[in-house]
């Protein structure tokens, strides 16, 4: 049933329901058990309906950018960040708001959860309070590439129906509740740990799942060492807390209850200790805001307690499966959450390895945790198993108990003890990250499954083949991916980076990057899109071209670890770059590259953009940066018809003149623009001009990442549109009725 619900929300297809019902009918006619097929089919249907209802609850596209009055409650701990808003520095507060549109309700009926952004709040939002605010709503759409974070899946899994910007708060009232209590506890802990920056950032995350104060650099350190799972309140933490409470209840509370109430003397102390243990598990889950891992752990503990009390013990794997099924029955979309599978995968690994015991518990478990973390967070290092082997016991046996005791007893000395452990852990991770010999290739799903299978098989007592054959399961991870184009051909990838531009030009043995996408407070396209893609492809750029210095083209460069030879149209705005100039040319693996512009250093801004001409076999590509009409007119005599034209300035009306289109006669034109951007790119006039010329326009805001295969002798150039060819139900319009 759990597998059926997982498949339903990941694919959203209806035909498996009919197959399951037919198989159930056949099984019944043959005297078998129809329930083996009937229940999975029904739960599959239930999950598909839940998926479609969630997709239809999202903000309709015709309301994107509209202002509506919303009444709701702040249900998260508001996060405060510094940033730049429309060119002005300020404070941005991020929170989740749950409520409904005030008027007119008919435009977007129902109750919804929003992720709101409140710039320069006065006063700041508080967790648990109610507000009436005028919001500018946006569709919960993000970028979609081969690698990197899938924000649309995240929004759907979290039940977020729209993004919003607070325009004005008209009224606010009330406060408190569970969110307000969590914020008060977090603020008190942060006050006690002001002298320990790392402790003040990590300890609230371990007590109340508050990661608001976690700096990006510290998060990257946990992620790169494969220990990011330690920042979540996991089932291991809940099990530890409930176990401690069970022991205390058996030793102290149980005898006291039996002394006060005679009938309880008939029950064993071990049985009386279970209700406080279950209550402690659910209490810790409430502290964490009932996140998915805590729900899973609390359910497992509850099922185990029920089985013990009824004197019907069940196998641990059956309890784990039952807890997973209950979590998915409550919310089928939880199957899209990385934290759910990290939590269940960790417990499954513990159960498998614990059967063997001995040294494998300390060797296999850290390795499994590192592999799972690598798949979910797209990053790891060779030292990940070492870091997990040391830090998992440190956090579980020392830091978490001290942090919880200090928070519940309001004893700063205990909180400082937990903070001291955190400082030591961060120091160890820093050393491991510094002396890592190199970043290993990114784990794909197949490679991760093979590694996990190798560890699981190694833990078996009875193994029919020699254990020295287990390293063969590492081949899918170490084997290089044969995705390079043949010599003389070119693979061109236009990344979906929102309102910006980033293009990869791959030859047989080299890679040229043209622009690196935008940057924003706390991140960039270089860190979120390019680096994960480069690790997945096992590539490093030979040459990186920054067309000009604007942030939407050069912002990702700061997070690009090895840019190779750096060229720029505005080298004075790009640190370490040499100027690109008309006439410069080179050949890589039979593919020819040549700069057509700028001719000299007198040009500034958009018109200083490097214009790159690429030839691969019979195909030609032209990348134009942000040049305007006046540069296009100067280049008319230097260009010829092209196969692919990357539109200048994201398709703005300042470029792509009629004469330019007539001269180039492109077969395809690519507009790299953000969905619903406030500039209106690509401009309607440009689209009409291209359509009249018979040019096929591809847009990253609609197609996601776009990939061309160029250079073959035939006239066709295979094109991959990531949303169309690799999209999931949440990457397109939802609904099948």
Automatic annotation (TrEMBL):
<feature type="transmembrane region" description="Helical">
    <location>
        <begin position="416"/>
        <end position="436"/>
    </location>
</feature>
<protein>
    <submittedName>
        <fullName>DNA internalization-like protein</fullName>
    </submittedName>
</protein>
<feature type="transmembrane region" description="Helical">
    <location>
        <begin position="7"/>
        <end position="25"/>
    </location>
</feature>
<dbReference type="InterPro" id="IPR004797">
    <property type="entry name" value="Competence_ComEC/Rec2"/>
</dbReference>
<dbReference type="InterPro" id="IPR036866">
    <property type="entry name" value="RibonucZ/Hydroxyglut_hydro"/>
</dbReference>
<keyword id="KW-1003">Cell membrane</keyword>
<dbReference type="InterPro" id="IPR035681">
    <property type="entry name" value="ComA-like_MBL"/>
</dbReference>
<feature type="transmembrane region" description="Helical">
    <location>
        <begin position="230"/>
        <end position="249"/>
    </location>
</feature>
<dbReference type="Pfam" id="PF00753">
    <property type="entry name" value="Lactamase_B"/>
</dbReference>
<feature type="transmembrane region" description="Helical">
    <location>
        <begin position="389"/>
        <end position="409"/>
    </location>
</feature>
<dbReference type="InterPro" id="IPR004477">
    <property type="entry name" value="ComEC_N"/>
</dbReference>
<feature type="domain" description="Metallo-beta-lactamase">
    <location>
        <begin position="499"/>
        <end position="675"/>
    </location>
</feature>
<feature type="transmembrane region" description="Helical">
    <location>
        <begin position="333"/>
        <end position="353"/>
    </location>
</feature>
<keyword id="KW-0812">Transmembrane</keyword>
<keyword id="KW-1133">Transmembrane helix</keyword>
<dbReference type="InterPro" id="IPR025405">
    <property type="entry name" value="DUF4131"/>
</dbReference>
<dbReference type="InterPro" id="IPR052159">
    <property type="entry name" value="Competence_DNA_uptake"/>
</dbReference>
<feature type="transmembrane region" description="Helical">
    <location>
        <begin position="360"/>
        <end position="377"/>
    </location>
</feature>
<keyword id="KW-0472">Membrane</keyword>
<feature type="transmembrane region" description="Helical">
    <location>
        <begin position="37"/>
        <end position="55"/>
    </location>
</feature>
<feature type="transmembrane region" description="Helical">
    <location>
        <begin position="269"/>
        <end position="290"/>
    </location>
</feature>
<dbReference type="Pfam" id="PF13567">
    <property type="entry name" value="DUF4131"/>
</dbReference>
<dbReference type="Pfam" id="PF03772">
    <property type="entry name" value="Competence"/>
</dbReference>
<dbReference type="InterPro" id="IPR001279">
    <property type="entry name" value="Metallo-B-lactamas"/>
</dbReference>
<feature type="transmembrane region" description="Helical">
    <location>
        <begin position="442"/>
        <end position="463"/>
    </location>
</feature>
């Amino acid at each position: 049933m759990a597998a059926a619900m997982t498949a339903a929300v990941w694919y959203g297809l209806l035909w498996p329901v009919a197959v399951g019902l037919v198989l159930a009918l056949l099984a019944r006619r043959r005297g078998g058990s129809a329930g083996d097929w009937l229940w999975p089919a029904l739960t599959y249907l239930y999950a598909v309906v839940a998926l479609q209802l969630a997709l239809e609850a999202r903000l309709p596209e015709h309301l994107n950018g509209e202002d509506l009055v919303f009444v709701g409650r702040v249900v998260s701990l508001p996060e405060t960040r510094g940033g730049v808003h429309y060119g002005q520095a300020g404070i941005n507060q991020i929170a989740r708001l749950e409520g409904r549109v005030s008027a007119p309700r008919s435009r977007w009926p129902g109750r919804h959860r929003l992720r709101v952004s409140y710039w320069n709040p006065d006063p700041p939002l508080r967790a648990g309070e109610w507000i009436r605010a005028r919001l500018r709503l946006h569709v919960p759409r993000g970028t979609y590439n081969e690698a990197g974070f899938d924000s649309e899946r995240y929004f759907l899994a979290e039940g977020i129906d729209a993004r919003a910007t607070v325009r004005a708060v008209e009224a606010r009232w009330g406060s408190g509740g569970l969110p307000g209590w969590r914020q008060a506890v977090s603020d008190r802990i942060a006050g006690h740990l002001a002298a320990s920056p790392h402790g003040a950032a990590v300890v609230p995350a371990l007590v109340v799942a508050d990661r608001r104060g976690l700096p990006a650099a510290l998060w990257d350190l946990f992620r790169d060492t494969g220990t990011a799972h330690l920042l979540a309140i996991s089932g291991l933490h809940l099990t530890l807390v409930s176990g401690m409470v069970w022991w205390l209840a058996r030793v102290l509370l149980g005898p006291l209850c039996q002394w006060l109430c005679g009938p309880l003397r008939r029950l064993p102390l071990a049985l009386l200790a279970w209700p406080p243990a279950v209550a402690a598990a659910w209490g810790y889950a409430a502290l964490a805001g009932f996140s998915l891992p805590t729900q899973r752990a609390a359910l497992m503990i509850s099922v185990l307690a029920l089985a013990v009390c009824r004197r019907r013990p069940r196998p641990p794997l059956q309890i784990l499966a039952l807890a997973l099924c209950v979590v998915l029955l409550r919310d089928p979309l939880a199957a899209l959450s990385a934290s759910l599978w990290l939590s269940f995968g960790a417990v499954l690994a513990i159960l498998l390895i614990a059967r063997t015991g001995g040294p494998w518990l300390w060797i296999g478990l850290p390795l499994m945790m590192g592999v799972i973390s690598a798949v979910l967070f797209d990053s790891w290092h060779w030292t990940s198993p070492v870091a997990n082997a040391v830090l998992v016991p440190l956090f579980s046996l020392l830091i978490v108990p001290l942090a919880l005791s200090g928070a519940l007893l309001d004893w700063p000395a205990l909180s400082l003890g937990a903070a001291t452990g955190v400082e030591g852990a961060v120091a160890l991770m820093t050393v491991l990250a510094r002396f890592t010999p190199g970043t290993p290739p990114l784990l794909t799903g197949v490679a991760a499954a093979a590694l996990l299978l190798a560890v699981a098989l190694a833990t078996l007592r009875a193994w029919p083949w020699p254990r020295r054959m287990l390293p063969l399961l590492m081949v899918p991870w170490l084997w290089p991916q044969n995705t390079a184009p043949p010599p003389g051909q070119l693979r061109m990838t236009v990344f979906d980076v929102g309102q910006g531009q980033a293009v990869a030009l791959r030859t047989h043995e080299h890679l040229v990057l043209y622009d690196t996408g935008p940057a924003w407070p706390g991140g960039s396209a270089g860190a979120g899109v390019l680096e994960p893609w480069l690790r997945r492809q096992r590539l490093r750029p030979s040459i990186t071209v920054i067309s000009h210095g604007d942030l939407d083209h050069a912002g990702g460069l700061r997070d690009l670890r090895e840019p190779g030879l750096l060229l720029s149209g505005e080298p004075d705005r790009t640190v370490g770059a040499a100027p690109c100039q008309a006439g410069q040319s080179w050949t890589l693996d039979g593919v020819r590259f040549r700069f057509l512009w700028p001719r000299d250093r007198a040009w500034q801004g958009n018109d200083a953009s490097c214009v790159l001409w690429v030839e691969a076999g019979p195909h030609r590509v032209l990348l134009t940066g942000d040049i305007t009409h006046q540069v296009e007119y100067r280049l008319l005599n230097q260009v010829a018809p092209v196969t692919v034209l990357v539109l200048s300035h994201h398709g703005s009306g300042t470029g792509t003149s009629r004469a330019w289109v007539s001269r180039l006669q492109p077969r395809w034109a690519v507009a790299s623009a953000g969905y619903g951007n406030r500039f209106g790119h690509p401009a309607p006039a440009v689209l009409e001009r291209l359509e009249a010329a018979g040019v096929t326009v591809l847009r990253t805001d609609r197609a996601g990442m776009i990939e061309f295969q160029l250079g073959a002798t035939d006239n066709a150039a295979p094109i991959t549109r990531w949303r169309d060819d690799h999209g999931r139900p949440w990457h397109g319009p939802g609904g099948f009725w």
